[in-house]
Amino acid sequence: MCCNQPVSGSRCRYQADDRSRWYQFPYQVLIAAVLLSLTSSAFAGDGYYTWVDAQGRIHNTPVEQKATEDADVGDEAVPDGGEAEYLTEDELQRKLEKYDEDNPSFFIYVDPQGNVRSQTYDGDAEQAAVESAVSDEQAIIGWDTILAPPFRVAEAVTAASFCESFKGEFESAIKPLISIQLFDPVRYRSFLTGEGKRPAWYFNVGAGQSGKQRFLVLRLRGAEVKATLIGLNAEYKPLYFERDAFSVQHPETWHGVAYQEFKILIEDSEVSSFIFYPHLKPAEDLSLEIRWNNDAPPF
Fold first, then answer.
1. pLDDT value at position 283?
2. Which helix (H) or strand (E) holds 287?
3. What residues contact 227, with CB distance under 8 A and at least 6 apart?
4. What letters, b where the CB count within 10 A reaches 16 and e where it falls short, cover 21-47?
5. Is the dihedral of CA 239, 242, 248, 252 positive or negative?
6. Contacts of range 134-143, beta carbons closer than 8 Å, 24 or more positions apart
7. How confident is residue 66, by pLDDT bands cut at 50, 70 and 90?
8. What percent of the chain has pLDDT over 90?
9. What is the DSSP track for 1-39?
10. pLDDT beyond 60 at 276
11. What is residue 254's DSSP assignment?
């Protein structure tokens, strides 16, 4: 009887809405089921790991995929136990050397006939050749004053006996790599030059060994002046005369005063003593640091 009763318009609308919801419900369940199945299949493995690539993008990769990639790299990357293998430094070095042997480096060039060619090269041998060339040239690079037999003064100058009269003024600096300081040159006898007397320092480093180079560094502090260097043999006979010896001015820093640096390469084993004097005596006090070494620069 109730079913035969008339209903209002609003009631009919509610009934229609109920029917609509009833027919929509199975589609909602179906969509949810599909999404759940997709999610389950994506992470059905042992899990996933999150990583960031070189461009800063974040990725989520299943663990099984990572294991497959590691297996493609090599059998040593992931052993049967499933744990990553950590190589020692020696093992890694051997592995890298083996890789270099199997994959030699090469360069591509065009020959004079216009043909494109490739050629392998040994990087270690090339580096060794470069280092050898630098070692052979270090005697020349940066050492502006060179005392070598071809540059000796005339024999008549060496035969003179004038410098011998100053032998009592010479200070000893025969220990290599040990700096000594000589202060105000006025304390020593003035050296007589063609332009008059000059305050000077006198020091000896001893004779060298044949075929070996020696490196002498003089650092003059107090004022920037021009100076002359005279190289003598064991008998205090002059062998070299370097007027206006080349120097480099180093400015004052937070931990040291300004100084001039004279770098002398000695290739003559007979040179054993030196006379060093500025051309003019400035008002400031002067001091001279002396340091030398065999075969390698002392600084």
1. 64
2. strand 287-294
3. 220, 244, 245, 247, 260, 262, 276, 277, 278, 279
4. eeeeeeeeeeeeeeeeeeeeeeeeeee
5. positive
6. 138/297, 139/213, 139/265, 139/267, 140/265, 142/263, 143/215, 143/263, 143/264, 143/265
7. very low
8. 37
9. -GGGS---HHHHHHHHHHHHHHHHHHHHHHHHHHHHHHH
10. yes
11. T
Least confidently predicted of 76-85, 189-198, 206-215 = 76-85
For the cut 60, the answer to whether the pLDDT of residue 114 exceeds it is yes
Average pLDDT over residues 30-39: 57
Which pLDDT score is estimated for 1? 46
Average confidence score pLDDT of the chain: 76
Where do the DSSP E strands lie in 63-221?
106-110, 116-120, 145-147, 171-172, 180-182, 191-193, 196-198, 201-204, 214-221
Q: Is 46:63 a contact under the CB 8 Å cutoff?
A: yes
Q: What is the DSSP string of 38-103?
A: HHHHHT-SS-EEEEE-TTS-EEEEEHHHHHHHHHHH-TTTS-TTSS-----HHHHHHHHHHHHHHS
Query: 180: exposed, middle or buried (C-beta count within 10 Å: 0-12, 13-18, 19+)?
Result: middle
Average pLDDT of the segment spanning 165-183: 92
Which is more confident, 121 or 9? 121
Q: How far, CA to CA in Å, does 3 sit from each of 16, 110, 138, 199, 242?
A: 16, 99, 114, 136, 131
Query: CA-CA distance, 165 to 192, in Å (whole number)?
Result: 11
Q: What is the pLDDT of residue 57?
A: 73
How far is residue 147's CA from residue 270's CA, in Å, rounded to a whole number?
Answer: 10
CA-CA distance, 93 to 159, in Å (whole number)? Answer: 64
Rounded mean pLDDT, 181-191: 90
- Ordered by where they begin, the domains of the chain are 145-294 (2.60.120)
Task: Give the H or E element holding residue 124.
Answer: helix 123-137
